[in-house]
Each structure stands twice: as structure tokens, then as C-alpha cells.
């Protein structure tokens, strides 16, 4: 009996914001330590978080998809000083879902993102984008909002050509 061919692959990210700014941390390993100690896998730059504030552990569902569980404290079970605020609630451990916000302390937070992509079997195929893309932006003409597509024009836009006021700039 052969193993089933995977139909999708997953991407897990932790978008961290702290004193160093905002950065994206791809989650690939089975476990991560999070805290201000330099030895932590995910270092948080803030004096308001514990040296070993939390642990992320990859878990697998029955359908084979993965997710990460976050638990307050270090790998020996010692809790952090501030604890974790997840989606506005103080929780000691939580199975993260796409979009969950974790607050470690003042001005130190993270957003968990998880996406599932179809697996490409032919390397010449273009990747299929996810169903919901938070960065997809559609630009429309305001005239289209009223249903007046005939009235949409570009007469108010300056494309760098000459205009009576162009010399005034």
C-alpha cells in the first residue's frame, strides 16, 4: 500500500511586532521558544516580556493538516510573568488559528497566519493563489460605484502632459 499523494501544502507564519519593528517569521520546525532571551528561537526585543515567555509546538489534525499550539512559559512548564493575551483573552495555551493575535506585553505582539496551497505536480504550472488573499486590492473608478460607467473618464487625471497649470509647479 502506498502513501496518499498530498493534495495541498501549508505555510505557517508568525508576524512579530516589537521594539525592532515588524517582521515575518516562517514556521517550519516542530517547536519554537519565544522570549527576550537571546537563546530563544524567536527573540522578542522588549524588557516587558519574560526571558522564556512561550513555546510554539506544531500539532497535526486527523486530516493531516498542521497547526501550532502556543503555551505560556518555558519548555519546563514555568509560566511567564505577564502571561499571554490571545484575541483579547488571557489564556495559558491555545490552538492557533489563522488571524489569531497574541500579545506578550506592552507593544509586543504577533499575528499567526496559516495558508493552505494546492500541491503542484508539474513544475511548469503556475502556483494557484489562495482563495482569500488579504493583500488583493481592486481599484475602481468612483463613477462605477453609482452605476454610471459611461460617465467614467480620465479628464481629471494629469498624466504628465501639458496643462495650463503645469508650468506653475
Give the helix/strand layout.
Blueprint lengths: L7 E11 L2 E6 L4 E5 L6 E2 L10 E7 L5 E7 L11 E3 L2 E3 L1 E3 L5 E5 L2 E11 L23 H4 L24
Parallel strand pairs: 3-4
Antiparallel strand pairs: 1-2, 1-11, 3-5, 5-6, 6-9, 7-8, 7-10, 10-11
Folded structure, characterized:
The protein has 169 residues and is mainly beta. The chain has one helix at 142-145, and strands at residues 8-18, 21-26, 31-35, 42-43, 54-60, 66-72, 84-86, 89-91, 93-95, 101-105, 108-118. The protein has one helix and eleven strands; from the N terminus they run E-E-E-E-E-E-E-E-E-E-E-H. The strands form two sheets. The protein has a six-stranded antiparallel β-sheet with strand order 2-1-11-10-7-8, with no helix packed on it. Strands 4-3-5-6-9 form a five-stranded mixed β-sheet, with no helix packed on it. The N and C termini lie far apart (74 Å).
